[in-house]
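User: Show me a protein chain along with its predicted structure.
Assistant: Here is one chain, sequence first, then C-alpha cells.
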Amino acid sequence: MAHVVLLTDAEDGLGDLTEHLDLLGHTVTARPRRASAAAGVPAADAVFVDARTDLSGARTVCTDLAALAAHLPVVAVFHDAGLSAVSARWQVADILLTTAGPAEVEARLRLATARSGPQGGHEPDEIRAADLVVDAAGYTARVHGQPLNLTYKEFELLKFLAQHPGRVFSREQLLQEVWGCDYFGGTRTVDVHVRRLRAKLGPDHEQLISTVRNVGYRFDARTA
C-alpha cells in the first residue's frame, strides 16, 4: 500500500478519487495546495496535485516539487477541459481525470511510483505472510511447512499477488502480468484460478486473496 498526499484546497479532497484511494487500501493525507511550497516536500510515496482549478498555480506546485524532490512521483488531477494545458513543462509523472475509476487510479499510481523508484532492484526469493511461505526461486509454496499442490499458473498468480501486498489488480491486469500479452482467453480464467488457490490455501488462509468489489483482487497479508 502507498502513502498518497493530496495537495488540494477543496473541502472534499479530490472527490471520488479520494474515495477510490481509500477503497484500494492506500493511506491518504490531504494538505492545502496553497501552502505546499512553504511546507516543503511531503513524506509520501506519491503526491496528487489538484489541477481542477487555477491551472497556473497547480503547474507551479508541480514544478516546485520536481525541483525539490525529483524522486517523488507527482500526479496532476484535471477536469477534462483542463487537458489542453498539459505539457512537459508540468514535470509530472502522470495525469488523472476526475472521472477515473478505481482500477485506472491504481494502475497509474503503480506506474508512477515504479518509474520514480530505484532501478535495478529485485523481488525477494522468499515471501512470507504468517504461515504461508512462497519460494519464488524454488517454485514452491507452503502453509504450516506443508507444500501446496499448485499448478504452474496457480503458483505464478499467488507469487505475483504476494510480491505486491495490498495492491489491487484488475482481472485484465492479472491476465497481462501472469498469463502474458499473447493470452486470448477471457477474464473468467482469473476468477477460476483464484477460487482454486483459495481452496488450496484452506479456510484459515483463503482470505489472503481478497476481492475488491468492482475492481479485482489483492493479497491482504494483514488478515493472515
